[in-house]
Amino acid sequence: MEGGDAASPPVAEEKGGEEEDDFGYRLFPDRNKKPESFLVRSLFTFHNRCQLMLRMTLDTNPYAQLLLEAMKQSGCTVFNDRHFSCENCDGCVSGGFDSATSQIVLCQNNIRHQSHMNRVVAHELIHAFDHCRAHVDWFKNVKHLACSEIRAANLSGDCTLMNEIARFKFGLKGHHQTCVRDRAIRSILAVRKVSKETAQKAVDEVFDACFNDLEPFGRIPHTKTDAKRAYKDFQNRDRYNANL
């Protein structure tokens, strides 16, 4: 999840003897509503703005472009009209990945700037990439969720120096790892009815392996320039493999 962020809300199921977990769907009320017609949606400024910013991200942002190409190579081509949905959400989130429908939800009422849209799309595409390439148990295995949240925070630009300064968090040595850990824990707590201790334990247990899993970037893209280099390297790697 991306805070004002991005959650991963799959389908709710009952847990015997425990409070029912809605897996974060309460944050995305439009998920359970009948879809409005294109004409009705087009009348709302939020929806139009969201669609325009999404198109700009998909066309120009190197984080998104690399992830889209990696998804396609993994057999999971992403289509704008099928796999992205601009919706109204709870005020504390900006987007989410709904594994039940393989859709990325973009919170049109909370995403107001292009740079924010870029980050949310990249964050959620990492969840989608993980969903495509691995058997992620989003429902029952909190360590699987923790791993994908660590990767999303690490690779999407969530924890860049500029974003952290904007949050009034100033980095010392190891601050990037601290940011990734904190944001992964926050995301788990937003979409799962677990204790903070349980979320921290899940993140701690998988942190090293998942923090060092840099696919498909091959590096931590701390800046857009890093992401452009990673995208170029990915394309070259693809051409090399095609010639083998």
From TrEMBL:
<dbReference type="Pfam" id="PF09768">
    <property type="entry name" value="Peptidase_M76"/>
</dbReference>
<dbReference type="GO" id="GO:0005739">
    <property type="term" value="C:mitochondrion"/>
</dbReference>
<keyword id="KW-0479">Metal-binding</keyword>
<comment type="similarity">
    <text>Belongs to the peptidase M76 family.</text>
</comment>
<keyword id="KW-0645">Protease</keyword>
<feature type="region of interest" description="Disordered">
    <location>
        <begin position="1"/>
        <end position="26"/>
    </location>
</feature>
<protein>
    <recommendedName>
        <fullName>Mitochondrial inner membrane protease ATP23</fullName>
        <ecNumber>3.4.24.-</ecNumber>
    </recommendedName>
</protein>
<keyword id="KW-0482">Metalloprotease</keyword>
<keyword id="KW-0378">Hydrolase</keyword>
<dbReference type="GO" id="GO:0033615">
    <property type="term" value="P:mitochondrial proton-transporting ATP synthase complex assembly"/>
</dbReference>
<dbReference type="GO" id="GO:0004222">
    <property type="term" value="F:metalloendopeptidase activity"/>
</dbReference>
<dbReference type="InterPro" id="IPR019165">
    <property type="entry name" value="Peptidase_M76_ATP23"/>
</dbReference>
<dbReference type="GO" id="GO:0034982">
    <property type="term" value="P:mitochondrial protein processing"/>
</dbReference>
<dbReference type="GO" id="GO:0046872">
    <property type="term" value="F:metal ion binding"/>
</dbReference>
